[in-house]
């Protein structure tokens, strides 16, 4: 298991939203290091559930603070389990389609 996952967002890799990598990293208990985007606070609490860097010195600082990195990783995983599972996403898609989510629920 990786302790840290670096995700650098720019308009050539994601225009809106966050890539799956952000959710995979947090679900697996890594401290996600990324730059802020407009959609970041819609999904995670910056500085508490993921680590936002503004310059390389921020990355150096968090990678040398095991206690802070571990706390961020734990809260990131909790948030992902609470709000960002595939089951939740499928239910949202079905709800948006106007069909009954219970009819499509996996057994």
Overview of this structure, please?
The chain has helices at 20-27, 40-43, 56-63, 66-83, 86-97, and strands at 4-7, 31-34, 51-52. The protein has 107 residues and is mostly helical. Helix 1 crosses helix 4. The protein has five helices and three strands.
- Summing up helix and strand content along with how strands pair, one would put the structural category as mainly alpha
Main beta sheet: strand number and arrangement?
3 strands, parallel
Amino-to-carboxy terminus distance: 30 Å
DSSP helical segment count: 5
Helix percent reads 40-55%
Gyration radius, rounded: 15 Å
Uncertain parts? none
N-to-C SSE series? EHEHEHHH
Shape: globular
Distinctive features:
single chain; 107 residues; mainly alpha; three-stranded parallel sheet; 47% helix; 9% strand
Topology:
Blueprint lengths: L3 E4 L12 H8 L3 E4 L5 H4 L7 E2 L3 H8 L2 H18 L2 H12 L10
Parallel strand pairs: 1-2, 2-3
Produce a short descriptive summary.
The chain has 107 residues and is mostly helical. Helices cover 47% and strands 9% of the residues.
């Amino acid at each position: 298991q990786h302790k840290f996952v670096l995700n650098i967002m720019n308009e050539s890799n994601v225009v809106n939203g966050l890539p799956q990598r952000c959710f995979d990293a947090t679900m697996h208990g890594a401290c996600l290091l990324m730059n802020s985007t407009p959609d970041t606070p819609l999904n995670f609490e910056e500085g508490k559930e993921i680590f936002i860097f503004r310059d390389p010195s921020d990355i150096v600082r968090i990678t040398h603070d095991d206690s802070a990195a571990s706390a961020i990783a734990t809260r990131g995983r909790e948030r992902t389990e609470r709000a960002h599972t595939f089951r939740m996403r499928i239910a949202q898609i079905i709800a948006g389609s106007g069909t009954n989510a219970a009819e499509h629920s996996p057994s």
